[in-house]
């Protein structure tokens, strides 16, 4: 089974993995019909980003932005470019 990420999001999440982050996601339409997808990003066991959206790639994109900001505050620069 293929992962749910678009190519752009996969590249961003791979950059976070290279920096030592772990990504988890879930889809539960019964949880919230307006935002059934959630993405969490962890660094050293601490959740540094969480987003819940209508689309899995949107949730991942917003979580990526928040995670990059959190990592930058720790002196870690992450770029998917």
Could you explain the architecture of this structure?
By secondary structure, the protein is α+β, with helices and mostly antiparallel strands. It is 37% helix and 27% strand. It contains two helices and three strands, in the order H-E-E-E-H. It has helices spanning 7-18, 56-73; strands spanning 21-27, 37-43, 46-53. Strands 1-2-3 form a three-stranded antiparallel β-sheet. Helix 1 (7-18) packs parallel to helix 2. It is globular, with a radius of gyration of 12 Å. The model has no long low-confidence stretch (mean pLDDT 89).
Query: Which oligomeric form is depicted?
Result: single chain
Structural class: alpha+beta
Percent of residues in β-strands:
25-35%
Query: Widest sheet: strand order?
Result: 1-2-3
Radius of gyration: 12 Å
N-to-C SSE string, H for helix and E for strand: HEEEH
Tally the helices: 2
- E-strand count: 3
Shape label? globular
Spatial separation of the terminal alpha carbons: 27 Å
Average pLDDT for all residues: 89
Low-confidence runs: none
Helix content: 25-40%
Largest β-sheet summary: 3 strands, antiparallel
């Amino acid at each position: 089974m293929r992962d749910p990420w678009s190519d752009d999001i996969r590249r961003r999440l791979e950059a976070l993995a290279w920096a030592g982050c772990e990504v988890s996601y879930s889809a539960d339409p019964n949880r919230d019909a307006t935002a059934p997808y959630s993405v969490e990003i962890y660094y050293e066991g601490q959740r540094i980003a969480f987003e819940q959206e209508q689309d899995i790639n949107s949730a991942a994109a917003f979580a990526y932005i928040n995670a990059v900001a959190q990592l930058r505050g720790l002196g870690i620069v992450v770029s998917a470019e």
